[in-house]
Design brief:
The chain is α+β, with helices and mostly antiparallel strands. The protein is 50% helix and 17% strand. The strands form two sheets. The chain has a five-stranded mixed β-sheet with strand order 2-4-5-7-6, covered by helices on one side. Strands 1-3 form a two-stranded antiparallel ribbon. The longest helix is centred in the N-terminal third of the chain and has 39 residues. Bound molecules: adenosine-5'-diphosphate and magnesium ion. The site of adenosine-5'-diphosphate has 21 residues, from α4 and α6.
Length: 243
């Protein structure tokens, strides 16, 4: 999946490059006349069109891959949030060596396990933490917290909260946050597919995600997943110990 996203980014770079090169030829008056300018423009448009078609095909593949995994119905094994977070911490350490931000971990040792595919949870937490760290720009805190809750139907859920003390998200961006290709970053830093993928993975695992933020007051993502072991607190406690 990440490979496919990478391809889309490359295609967008290629399109941008083609248009830029053509525009600068135009501005420098390098065409002999109107006819040459027109026929060259037509060529460029054809190439841009072909690349755009390819990018669309890839995005279709991404959504197909996501719905296919939705339908696969492969049961998730109970997993430990702490262990998934440890893997994410390790990856973050490699991506951001010598980090200058603080990570605060409030995942209790005895916390119950949840139903989620391990690699999916690692990818979800990594995408969210990566966004937070980029927003922190080297100063501030990233906080992860796990707590238990109950849905009104009585089902036990685990909440994972990932909060940062970054600049927050303006209202106009917040409403479009999970849309594909929604990004405020330059092309070398982001492609706007992270949160779209996160949403797909969360849903696939029977979870939910919400975000709250305000300009200047940081950002908080809240994930909810079914707790392994069913509905009663006693059952949850039993599962917790086998972590
Ligand atoms: N923790 C955060 N703090 C501030 N802005 C955020 C945060 N997380 C996401 N965003 C905003 O949401 C946008 C979309 O995020 P994402 O889908 O991961 O794409 P990308 O990171 O490639 O831009 C980001 O460009 C950024 O503007
Ligand atoms: Mg991102």
């Amino acid at each position: 999946m990440l490979n496919l996203q990478h391809n889309v980014v490359n295609i967008l770079y290629a399109i941008k490059g083609m248009i830029e090169a053509h525009m600068s030829r135009f501005e420098e008056g390098r065409f002999s006349g109107r006819d040459e300018a027109l026929s060259r423009s037509r060529e460029v448009m054809k190439r841009v069109y072909a690349q755009a078609e390819l990018a669309l095909l890839i995005t279709k593949k991404i959504s197909l891959a996501m719905s296919a995994s939705n339908n696969r119905n492969e049961p998730a094994h109970p997993i430990s949030i702490r262990k998934a977070w440890d893997a994410v911490r390790k990856m973050l350490g490699e991506t951001y060596p010598g980090n200058r931000f603080e990570i605060i971990n409030h995942i209790p040792h005895e916390f119950p396990r949840i139903f989620c595919h391990r690699n999916d949870l690692v990818e979800i937490l990594y995408c969210l933490a990566d966004n937070a760290i980029q927003a922190l720009e080297g100063k501030g805190k990233l906080i992860i917290r796990a707590s238990l809750g109950f849905r009104s139907e009585g089902e036990a859920i685990a909440n994972i909260v990932l909060a940062d003390t970054g600049p927050g998200i303006p209202e106009e961006t917040l409403t479009r946050l999970f849309e594909p290709f929604m990004t405020t970053k330059s092309l070398d830093k982001g492609n706007g597919l992270g949160l779209c993928l996160v949403k797909g993975l969360v849903r696939k695992n029977g979870g939910s995600i919400s975000v709250s933020s305000f300009r200047g007051s940081g950002t908080t993502f809240t994930l909810a997943f079914p707790v392994a072991g069913g509905r009663s607190p006693k059952e949850m406690k039993d599962y917790a110990m086998t972590g």
